[in-house]
Write a structure and sequence with these properties.
One of its GO terms (molecular function) is hydrolase activity. The structure is a single chain. With about 230 residues, the protein is an alpha/beta fold. The chain has helices at about 20-25, 45-60, 75-85, 135-145, 150, 175-185, 210, 215-225; strands spanning about 1-5, 30-35, 65-70, 90-95, 115, 145-150, 170, 200. The protein has a single domain (about 1-225), classed as Alpha/Beta hydrolase fold, catalytic domain (Rossmann fold, 3-Layer(aba) Sandwich).
């Protein structure tokens, strides 16, 4: 199966470099997406531009792909499902939940000179970054791409209720499946609360398992693709 991989804030397509060979070895065709404004050299981009890049990958895929969204890009993956409910076979959300209709895509970090730079590790201390050693943190910061304000403040639009019929796997890295299920049941993710086929999968890692647990993440995604 083709597996479309979308990294979260500050990540370009190379974030999946250690996951790609693992997925390939498991018999799948990984398709990492470098989002406009996040590694393609463009000075600016909009949320619509990023969605268009994801949809291009979905449309070019063989059959019905698994679309994987990490962190904030869980919303991009969900927007792609909304735009192509008949084309996407399944969606996997890694460490993130879809932003509801009418809300800003990712406006919870400071904006500086029209972009959202990586804010430093202080805001991620604890379970998010506990498995990143100093060397890994340095590599992450060196590769981080400031996200255009026009992406972060872009408004999420969802129009096709057929999205709720597409199966969803919530991959739980720095939180547990029980916690995620409780959050959804408590109304913290109104989109996921309406999904007909929803599954929670544990992954013992921090917020960036493609960096710290690429083999384990690949196995989880391969299992999701094959089920």
């Amino acid at each position: 199966m083709d597996i479309v991989l979308i990294g979260g804030l500050w990540l370009d397509g190379s974030a999946w470099d250690d996951v790609v060979p693992e997925l390939t070895a498991l018999g799948h065709r990984p398709v990492p997406v470098t989002l406009p404004g996040q590694g393609d050299g463009a000075a600016s981009a909009t949320l619509d531009d990023q969605l268009a890049a994801v949809l291009a990958a979905v449309d070019a895929a063989a059959g019905k792909p698994l679309v994987v969204g990490h962190s904030a890009a869980s919303t991009l993956a969900w927007m792609a499902v909304d735009a192509r409910p008949e084309k996407v076979g399944k969606v996997a959300l890694v460490g993130g939940f879809p932003t509801p209709y009418g809300r800003a895509y990712a406006d919870h970090f400071p904006i500086e000179d029209g972009t959202v730079p990586f804010p430093g590790w202080a805001v991620f201390e604890g379970p998010d970054a506990a498995d990143l050693d100093e060397q890994a943190r340095e590599r992450f910061v060196a590769a981080a791409v400031a996200v255009p304000e026009t992406v972060a403040r872009g408004v999420v639009r969802l129009t096709d209720e057929r999205r709720f019929d597409v199966p969803v796997v919530v991959v739980c890295p720095e939180f547990s499946p029980a916690e995620a299920e409780e959050w959804v049941a408590g109304g913290e993710s109104p989109e996921l609360a309406r999904v007909a086929h929803l599954e929670y999968v544990d992954l013992d890692s921090g917020h960036w398992p493609m960096v710290t647990r690429p083999r384990e993440l690949a196995r989880v995604l391969a299992k999701a693709a094959g089920s």
